[in-house]
Design brief:
GO molecular function, one term: riboflavin reductase (NADPH) activity
Radius of gyration: 18 Å
Shape: globular
Largest sheet: 7 strands, antiparallel
CATH class: Mainly Beta
CATH architecture: Roll
CATH superfamily: Electron Transport, Fmn-binding Protein, Chain A
Number of domains: 1
Keywords: Oxidoreductase
Structural class: mainly beta
Organism: Amycolatopsis decaplanina DSM 44594
InterPro entries: Flavin_Rdtase-like_dom, NADH-dep_flavin_reductase, Split_barrel_FMN-bd
Order of helices and strands: HEEEEEHEHEEEEEE
Protein name: Putative oxidoreductase
């Protein structure tokens, strides 16, 4: 509806109605939503890193964020085990890191960070990727079931950023750089 109470017709060009969305149709629709790219990391015995774009700010008071992780992903066990996680928000020149941490053939554990420039988070010890736009360190406060994923709610323990950088985003099935 518009501000004067009149309804606005929805565009129909290219619209394909379906009784129920399929995984393919849902993926196609979600590809139209531009998202930032992060690498979520967890410290400890199950140390791991994973590219993720299912990440969001939740609250400033208290400082909360969420990330959604498949229950079959190695990252799921790493977060549950350590009860902490970190988020590195990737810059425009870090597409190689997004691709690396999305590649399931990389080494397991701390060895996957051997070829990556990183520092341990001062609050959690989780790897923080050097050169990122910003970093958050979080303690896991809640976990919710969300279909085939868990929604991890984290209280932000520390946050830092590097100003005046370009961002890396994902839209339409491809990486893009944004000033």
């Amino acid at each position: 509806m518009t501000s004067n109470g009149h309804s606005v017709p929805l565009p129909t060009a290219g619209f394909r109605p379906a009784a129920d969305p399929t995984p393919v149709s849902l993926r196609e629709a979600m590809a139209q939503f531009a998202t930032g790219i992060t690498v979520v990391t967890a410290p400890g015995e199950h140390c791991h890193g994973m590219t993720a774009n299912a990440f969001s700010s939740v609250s400033l008071e208290p400082p909360l964020v969420l990330c959604c992780i498949s229950r079959t992903a190695r990252m799921h066990a790493a977060i549950v085990s350590s009860r902490t996680f970190a988020v590195s928000m990737l810059g425009a020149d870090q597409e190689h890191l997004a691709r690396y941490f999305a590649d399931r053939s990389r080494p397991n554990g701390l060895a996957q960070f051997d070829t990556v420039d990183w520092v341990p988070g001062r609050r959690t010890g989780a790897p923080l990727l050097s050169g990122s736009l910003a970093w958050l360190e979080c303690e896991l406060t809640e976990s919710y079931e969300g279909g085939d994923h868990s929604i991890f709610l984290g209280r932000v323990l520390d946050s830092r950023r590097i100003p005046d950088q370009k961002a890396l985003v994902f839209y339409g099935g491809a990486f893009h750089r944004v000033a």
